[in-house]
User: Fold these one by one.
Assistant:
Number 1:
Amino acid sequence: MTREQPDTNLGQASSEVVDVLAPVAVDTAYSYRIPSGLKLEPGAFVRMPLGARMATGVVWSARPAGGGNLKAIAEVLDWPPIRAPMRDFIDWVARWTLAPRGMLLRMGVRAGEIAEPPQPKFGLVATGKAPTRMTDARARVLAALADNKAPAPKTALAARAACSAGVIDGLVSDGALEAVALPSASAAAPLDPDFRLSLLNADQRAAADDLIRLVSKRAFCRAK
């Protein structure tokens, strides 16, 4: 199922339309007009307008249609296409798990290249410079940072010091605090060199064997 988008800056209508899946939490592939002279095949990476921004997506299907009321593909990226087996696998997993196809696409490709990078986050640290004017609220902020020397986001620091965000902004302007980039969160837990399979008791082993047998049938079934 596709969703058509109006375009207020149209040229001539195209004889072919592509449905593009974006790596976001939606299941819908959006329809776009192919500019004149451009040939697109399913699996190609493209740049296209999505709301108020430009996004990267994958052509999921192409079909002859009048695209006069659709926005146009902006750019074709010179990246290896996603082959049909992978696209079929994403569709299959989406049906089985009821997960949005866009998020499965994000998992199935190098998300750092296809998706918009997350905005960096910043925390505040003390510079060691005494503020030109000390108040009780400013003293609480500096004490909170002294108790925990790790960079603190402004909202969390204001809560710990029981003060307003304006007090912290004033310390930054005064040079007593500075913003530093926070390390990005890891996408996975550190590897455990001592990892081993769980030891199952007799009842758990029987249940696990039953699940393995059902999965091996590769068919839908109703749980007991």
Note: The first helix runs from residue 84 to 97.
Number 2:
Amino acid sequence: MLKKYRNKILTLLALVTLGIVLQISGLLEPEKIITAARQYSDQWWLWLLLVIAQIILFTFALAGSMFLWVAAALFSPLSGSFVLATGAALGGVTAYVFSQRLTDEWIHKIENSKAYSLLRKNDNFFMLLALRIMPAFPHSVINYSSGILKVNLSAFVVASFVGVGLKSYVFITVIQQAASSGSFYDLLDFWVLAPLVITSLVLFSGVLIVNRKINKL
């Protein structure tokens, strides 16, 4: 019995240890990352390093979205959204694969999530895109749910890249505008989030309507 769960137990211990080390060291603080990255802002490999860092964090369900602030501080909206979309898509794939090594407790938690319930019934590109675009929806839950359900990997990757790219472009633009005006209250404005929320809801509705018509046939 112990041998059966040995790998999963070791994986869980490794995740806990990694999280504690990163938290204590302060390496997950955006300010420190931005300060360090600005020293190499003229280097071509900086964006690649940021993508790799996102892949690692997304794989282990850590705070990869903090790189939104890093991208907003270092890149234009278009370049920043490309870096974030690439990191999220590739990190999503590694998390998708890694989900097969989750402990039973983690799998049970994922199966009780809203994302899992939605994808179990509608595991298609448009549902994946709707989840990616929706503000504040946890990417780790989407990644692990998709891996456990073995949703179509091509649709998963494209939806991840497009959804995160669109959302990142909007947020980076607003963050940079707020920084230049000296007021970050704009980030709390409903109309900043409204286009993303509306787009996501339209996609949700479209998927549900299509499914109802198919079920009636």
Note: The CA atoms of residues 125 and 155 lie 5 Å apart.
Number 3:
Amino acid sequence: MLELYHHGSPVYAAKVRMVLAEKDMAWTGHYIDLLKGEQFAPDYLKLNPKALVPTLVDGGSIIGESTVICEYLDHIHSGTPLRPAKAVETARMRNWTKFIDEFVHPMCAA
């Protein structure tokens, strides 16, 4: 069972939840209240030493960073892929996800 440690507001966590929904994957959510500082709890820091959300746990594997989580979910789930089949199109997609991570997401932060 996939477990997602997340918070409701950050766009990073929202995009992982969108991939889970798009791929129709079952998952269990663990809400991390960032306003209460739950991301700094010792148990959570064992999962994600950066104290960031989201974090995905798949069995014994722990995956952080929203774009990496989305690519992982697309890779492990059969069915309609979210990434293009052609290498050049995948490269273009990855340029866009890099742009979102490096420029758009920081603009959404306080």
Note: The chain has a mean pLDDT of 92.
